[in-house]
Amino acid sequence: MILTIGNTKGGVGKTTLAVNLAIARALTGREVWLIDGDRQGTASAAIAARAERGREPGIACAQYPDGSALRAQVQQQRGKWDDTIIDAGGRDSSALRAALILSDVLIVPFAPRSYDVWALEDIAALVDEARSLRDGLQAFAVLNLADPGELSVDNTEAAAAVAGVPQFTYLPTPIRRRKAFANAGGQGLCVQELAPRDLKACSELTTLADYAFNIQTIAS
């Protein structure tokens, strides 16, 4: 599967989510390729930190912020990997547009803030463009950096707002604002590798991964 974590809005935790998902998937024995589609190179830096610490499994990672290069490399190498995860930068870029055309699944993380919800309209337009060029892209929105409380009004209202953006299906797998995610990502780890483990963070990541990588089965 080719899965993109993308949004034209910055600051919604795309890279942290992409790194955590890539490592979590590799821990299950999958051959994973993480592509950093952002010129800032944050995902690449995290994986480099992981390699310096000698953590296993190793994660293959490449940086292609240019859409043409990203498209060419994925097309050439897609058969070598069980899963390719693309971390697209927080803006309308050639890398994001290329990723949308190549991907089976798009996960759009958004925070429970008005600006983040409004920004879904921007990437929804890009989803429409990608679908006009290639059938089969499935797009899902997931609440990221959500308020920790189970009964948060902001979380509930943000999730409900996705219903007004028909290009996306809302995934009922929120990732809450927990230090474990930031701490893990900065070390090139996923929350499942931290000690001591944050069991709630681990459960949230596992639940999201189960949904994200079984979406085609669920949809059928």
Question: Describe it for me?
Answer:
The protein is of the alpha/beta class and 220 residues long. The protein has a single domain (2-219), classed as Rossmann fold (3-Layer(aba) Sandwich). It contains nine helices and seven strands; from the N terminus they run βαβαβαβαβαβαβααα. The protein has helices spanning 14-27, 42-52, 67-77, 94-102, 114-133, 153-161, 179-186, 199-212, 215-219, and strands at 2-5, 32-37, 60-63, 83-88, 105-110, 138-143, 169-170. Strands 3-2-4-1-5-6-7 form a seven-stranded parallel beta sheet, with helices on both faces. It is globular. It starts with a strand and ends with a helix.
Largest sheet entry: 7 strands, parallel
Rg (CA only): 16 Å
The CATH homology group name: P-loop containing nucleotide triphosphate hydrolases
Helix content: 40-55%
State the end-to-end CA separation. Answer: 15 Å
CATH top level class name: Alpha Beta
Task: Count the domains.
Answer: 1
Number of helices: 9
Structural class, please? alpha/beta
Number of strands: 7
Q: Can you write the helix and strand succession as a string? A: EHEHEHEHEHEHEHHH
